[in-house]
C-alpha cells in the first residue's frame, strides 16, 4: 500500500512538473511573439529593442535564484566561485540576444525549429571534428532527421500572412542569427559542464545565479553603457506603452517559474525526463503559435516539423535505452 501511495505521489509530481514547464514556456513563447510582432498604442509602434528582454529576464532570474538559495540551499561552500561564469556569461548573453533578434526577420515557428530543436547538430559536428568522437549509426540517423527537417523548413517559402507580421522580413539574416545562437549556446553548455566537473558541489541554483549575474552585468553595459544606449529607449517605450511593460514582466516571470520547474524535474526524475518534457513542449509551442497567433504553416512545413521531432524523439528513446542498460549493470 505504501509503495502504491509513493507511486501515485511520484506520478502526481511528474504531472505537476509537466504542467508547470508547458504552461510557463508556452505562454512565454506567446508573449515573446507578441512583443516582436504587435503594434502598441494609438501610434502603432513596434517594440524594436528585443535585446531588452534578455536584460529583464536576467534581473528577474538573478533575484529568483538568490531567493531560492537563501530559502533552500543547505550549504554555500564548495560551489563554483561567481567569477568562473564570466566567459559562459558572454556567450549566454550574445546567443539568446541573437535568437530573440531573429524574430524580427523570421517567424516564431521557424525560430523554434531552428534555434530550439537542432542543438544536437553542432554538438556532434564539434565532437567529430575537434575531439574525434565516434557516434553510433542510430545517433547519425537522429542527426540526419533533424538536419534534413531543419534545412528543408528553412528553404520553404513562408506564407504572406506571416511575412506581413514581421518587423523586417529577411530569411537569410534570421536563419543566420539562429545558427549563431546555436554556436554560442554550444559553448555555453560546454563551459557549464566544465564548471560543474571542477566544482562538483555546485547546485543548479548556483549556476542560475552565476549565469544571470554576468548576464545582467553585460546587458547593462550594452544597453546603458553610453548616453544613447538602446536601454534608455526601451525604458521610454515601456513608459509610453504600459501594456508592453506588463508583457515584458510576464515574459520574465514565466522564464523564472519555468526554470524552477525544470530544476525540480531534474532533481526528482533526471535529465532524460526533463529533455522529453521540454522537447514535446517545443512542438506544442509551434502548434499553439500557428493556431492562435496567425502564423500558418503549409503541409510540407508541418512535414519538416514532424521530421525534426521524430529525430529528437528517437534520440530520447536511445538515451532511455542506454539508461536502462546502465541501471541493469549497477544492479548486477
UniProtKB/TrEMBL annotation:
It is found in: Endoplasmic reticulum membrane. Coiled coil: none annotated. Keywords: Antiport, Endoplasmic reticulum, Membrane, Transmembrane, Transmembrane helix, Transport. The chain crosses the membrane at residues 12-30, 50-69, 137-156, 248-266. GO terms for cellular component: endoplasmic reticulum membrane; Golgi membrane. It holds the Pfam family UAA. GO terms for biological process: UDP-galactose transmembrane transport. One of its GO terms (molecular function) is antiporter activity. It is a multi-pass membrane protein. Belongs to the nucleotide-sugar transporter family. UDP-galactose:UMP antiporter (TC 2.A.7.11) subfamily. This is UDP-galactose transporter 3 isoform 2. It comes from Theobroma cacao (Cacao).
Amino acid at each position: 500500500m505504501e509503495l502504491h501511495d509513493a507511486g501515485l505521489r511520484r506520478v502526481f509530481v511528474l504531472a505537476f512538473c509537466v504542467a508547470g514547464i508547458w504552461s510557463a514556456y508556452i505562454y512565454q513563447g506567446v508573449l515573446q511573439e507578441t512583443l516582436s510582432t504587435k503594434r502598441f498604442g494609438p501610434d502603432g509602434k513596434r517594440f524594436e529593442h528585443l535585446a531588452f528582454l534578455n536584460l529583464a529576464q536576467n534581473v528577474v532570474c538573478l533575484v529568483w535564484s538568490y531567493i531560492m538559495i537563501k530559502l533552500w540551499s543547505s550549504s554555500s561552500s564548495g560551489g563554483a566561485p561567481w567569477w568562473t561564469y564570466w566567459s559562459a556569461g558572454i556567450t549566454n548573453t550574445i546567443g539568446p540576444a541573437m535568437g530573440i533578434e531573429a524574430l524580427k526577420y523570421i517567424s516564431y515557428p521557424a525560430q523554434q525549429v531552428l534555434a530550439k530543436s537542432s542543438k544536437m547538430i553542432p554538438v556532434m559536428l564539434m565532437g567529430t571534428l575537434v575531439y574525434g568522437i565516434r557516434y553510433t549509426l542510430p545517433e547519425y540517423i537522429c542527426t540526419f532527421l533533424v538536419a534534413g527537417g531543419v534545412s528543408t523548413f528553412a528553404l520553404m517559402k513562408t506564407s504572406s500572412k506571416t511575412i506581413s507580421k514581421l518587423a523586417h522580413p529577411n530569411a537569410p539574416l534570421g536563419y543566420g542569427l539562429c545558427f549563431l545562437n546555436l554556436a554560442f549556446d554550444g559553448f555555453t553548455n560546454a563551459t557549464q559542464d566544465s564548471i560543474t566537473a571542477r566544482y562538483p558541489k555546485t547546485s543548479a541554483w548556483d549556476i542560475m545565479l552565476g549565469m544571470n549575474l554576468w548576464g545582467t552585468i553585460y546587458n547593462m553595459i550594452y544597453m546603458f553603457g553610453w548616453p544613447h544606449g538602446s536601454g534608455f529607449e526601451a525604458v521610454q517605450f515601456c513608459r509610453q506603452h504600459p501594456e508592453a511593460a506588463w508583457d515584458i514582466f510576464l515574459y520574465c516571470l514565466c522564464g523564472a517559474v519555468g526554470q524552477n520547474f525544470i530544476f525540480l524535474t531534474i532533481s526528482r526524475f533526471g535529465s532524460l525526463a526533463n529533455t522529453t518534457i521540454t522537447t514535446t513542449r517545443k512542438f506544442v509551442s509551434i502548434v499553439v503559435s500557428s493556431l492562435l497567433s496567425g502564423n500558418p504553416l503549409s503541409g510540407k512545413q508541418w512535414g519538416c516539423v514532424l521530421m525534426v521531432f521524430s529525430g529528437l524523439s528517437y534520440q530520447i528513446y536511445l538515451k532511455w535505452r542506454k539508461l536502462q542498460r546502465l541501471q541493469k549493470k549497477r544492479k548486477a
